[in-house]
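Below is our example:

___
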Amino acid sequence: MSTAFYPIGTPGHAWGAPEKAQWLARQTVRRSYAAEVLTKIDALRGRFDVVTYGELDYASGAYPLLAIRSRDWDDALPVALVTGGVHGYETSGVQGALQFVDRHAAGYAGRCNLLVAPCVSPWGYERIQRWNALALDPNRNFTAGSPAPESAALMALVQPLAERFLMHIDLHETTDSDEGEFRPALAARDGKPFEADSVPDGFYLCADSLNPQPEFQQAVIAAVAKVTHIAPPDAQGRIIGSPVVAHGVIEYPLKALGLCAGITGARYTTTTEVYPDSPRATPAQCDDAQVAAVRGGLEYALAQR
């Protein structure tokens, strides 16, 4: 166990409203959701349907929440969900989802219906931030009556399609800032000690411990390994504190933890984790790895129908 100084709050005491307001005042816009995401979605409207499934209304501004759907939607076909940007700072999840739609989604016409929510947390995207404006992690709040509006809106989008999802892949990153900023902030917010961990160098997956589907996970790993390297376990046989159960795979109870990949009840689910700070990976490689993960997962899932 170690301690880490965080400039907000008192060690051992959870944040109240004043500390959260202090944290919020420190957040600044560092990039544009409109320029980097909405313009790319607009460019897809000629080939795909785009739906507005909600709007965030924070004091700093409003953000439309958009999803992309297969144009020739066929209720006889299974549905595959791709989500990105649940953590706004995880860039390749957003850009990888958009790249997948632009370059590859049309190839699945007649095989499955695609639903893609490329940027679930646009406030966080603009601020390169893990949390939303309420100092909540959307990826721990996919729960009934969620206090995170990003999470609640996405759950409302997928609910009418319950029981029809074949696959859900949620695109994420693990970054050096997890250890330098976000995990220390979490410990400070909750009044708990910060316990340092290592950041794995490479791509890995988080499967559902209650529905692991190991062959599916390895199909995704095999597809990504053609693009970038897979994270090895640490000296204790772990990745981010969890036992490695197969090459590049750890497991969490997705639904119990309120994680995005647990919202559909799909047969095949996984959370990707790309490491953009690796000296062995470029931003383009990270985007390509997310695309490879989606395609590898889809090809496996569709072959098992």
